[in-house]
Each structure stands twice: as C-alpha cells, then as structure tokens.
Write a structure and sequence with these properties.
With 273 residues, the protein is an alpha/beta fold. It is built from 13 helices and eight strands. The chain has an eight-stranded mixed β-sheet, with helices on both faces. Helix 3 (74-88) packs across helix 4 (99-110), helix 5 (129-143) packs antiparallel against helix 6 and helix 5 (129-143) packs antiparallel against helix 9 (185-198). The longest helix is centred in the N-terminal third of the chain and has 15 residues, at 74-88. It starts with a strand and ends with a helix.
C-alpha cells in the first residue's frame, strides 16, 4: 500500500494512504504535539491506523505545526484543518484521536459542511480528575527539564503489564533518538499549559452544535478520560452513540485494535455488528 507524506499549507505534516473514492481524516493525538509527525513512529505503526479504515477509503493523518509563530490554539488548528480538507477531500469522515478529539469537536461544530461523520476515539470534552493530575505532572516534568520521564508518562499506558515492560525497554533502547525528536521546550510548555489547560474548559460549548452522526469510543480505565467524561460528551451531542470497553486504558486502539476497528468501520459504513 502506497504511503505519501508531506506538508499542507507549508506547515501541517501529513501521511496519506489507502485507496478509494471515499475519504477519512485522522486528527492525531498528543504524540504529534510532543514530537513532529515526521520524527514520530506513526508511519511505522500505520497497520494500527489502517484497522480503522473501511475498504475503498483513502485516509489522511494530520499532525500539527511544529513551530507556530504565535501560541497555538484549538480554533486555529480547526481552521487550518478546514482549509486543508476543503481543498483535498471535501466533506469527509473525521476521526479525532485523544487530544485530536478536542480539535475534532470544534471542527465538526464550526464546519458541518465538511463533516460527514465524527469519531471521537479515546477522547472526551474534558479530562477526568485522574487525567488532570496526569497533565499537571507532565507540565511539571517539562518545567523541570525531565523529558525522558515525560516520554514515559505518555507511553507507559497499556493495560497489560508485559506491554508496558516492552514499551519501557524499547523507549530506553531508543532514548537518545526519542529525546532528539522532541519539540522545543518552549513548544512543549505552550502545548501543555495552553492547549491542555486553559482551552479544554471551552470544549463542551461546541458539543451541542455538532450535527454529524458521532461515535464516542473509549475504555473505562482510560488514564486521561473516565466513563463519566465519555458519557457526558456523547450526551451533549445531538446524534451520538457511546461505546465503552470495560477495563481498557488509553491504549485501547492498540490493545484491542481489531475489535475497536470493527466498531469504527461499522459506524462509518452504516453496517450493523
């Protein structure tokens, strides 16, 4: 399967794959904020993303501007993505992954003509109490320059202990490259303090404006979003379906890849499970 990479608007990195007349666009998670899409391991793990893509669909994975001239904001991200989607695909399926869901909520509310369906994958309108503590810890690690600990905080999220052990080993083995690939301290600080804190409280105001059919999908043991937050998000959207996987964590899309992929694909195509 051919994969294309590049930059839209001379600043937004992307990966394009699949094939077919229908399209879907992934707004990626926090890893694309901490590390640029080009330097991340996303391209090596596209088999995970492809599990969510129905037959006959071309898909795009969008990252984020690495060195914005002004402090990045969620509305700016949504506006940039709207320009790209209007030019490249027209009305399309939007999949907001984790942090990308914050952008996707605003996008769907502000650009209904470009939103065919909306999937909020391991994403809710706000963090749980545990999630807020985790974000606060990540902010502290950045302020103290403890970037390796930051990587571990954002990586060791698996439900299964042996996967966390494997992830810890692989992170240690590639420590130098992982640290070199991180965005600048200023960019990390701006992301965590601005995008993850001040603006998150506004997300709920956008939910009632979403008109697209929506799927909210997550795990009940997610370290950033809890069942209440997932449920509130679905309840505030006019036409939303909630799908929770018992005892699964923020790594649900990886650990239950085929099962969650089947739910997402069936939602997109309108098929029944």
């Amino acid at each position: 399967m051919n994969i294309h990479t590049g930059r839209f608007l001379h600043k937004i990195p992307y990966i394009k794959g699949g094939g077919g007349p229908r399209t879907m666009v992934f707004f990626y998670g926090a890893s694309a904020l901490l590390t640029s899409l080009e330097k991340s391991s996303i391209a090596a793990h596209l088999h995970i993303i492809r599990e969510y893509v129905p037959e006959g669909y071309t898909y795009y994975v969008l990252g984020y501007e690495q060195y914005p001239q002004t402090p990045y904001c969620l509305d700016q991200m949504a506006d940039d993505f709207a320009r790209i989607i209007a030019q490249e695909t027209g009305k399309t399926v939007i999949v907001g992954v984790s942090f990308g869901g914050f952008v996707a909520m605003r996008f769907a509310a502000q650009y209904p003509a470009l939103t065919e369906k909306l999937v909020l994958l391991i994403s809710a309108h706000t963090f749980s109490a545990a999630g807020k503590k985790k974000i606060a810890k990540m902010k502290q690690l950045v302020s103290e320059g403890r970037y390796y600990e930051l990587l571990k905080e954002n990586t060791l999220l698996f439900r299964r202990w042996w996967l966390n052990l494997l992830a810890r080993f692989l992170l240690w083995k590639d420590k130098k490259n992982k640290l070199r690939s991180l965005n600048s301290p200023t960019a990390l600080k701006d992301s965590l303090e601005g995008l993850f804190s001040r603006q998150v409280g506004d997300n709920i105001a956008y939910l009632g404006k979403i008109r697209a059919k929506t799927l909210v999908i997550g795990g009940t043991k997610d370290q950033f979003f809890g069942p209440d937050e997932f449920g509130e998000t679905a309840a505030h959207i006019g036409d939303a379906r909630l799908q929770l996987f018992a005892a699964e964590t923020h790594m649900l899309p990886v650990e239950r890849n085929k099962e969650t992929g089947a739910v997402v694909k069936n939602f997109i195509t309108g098929e029944t499970i």
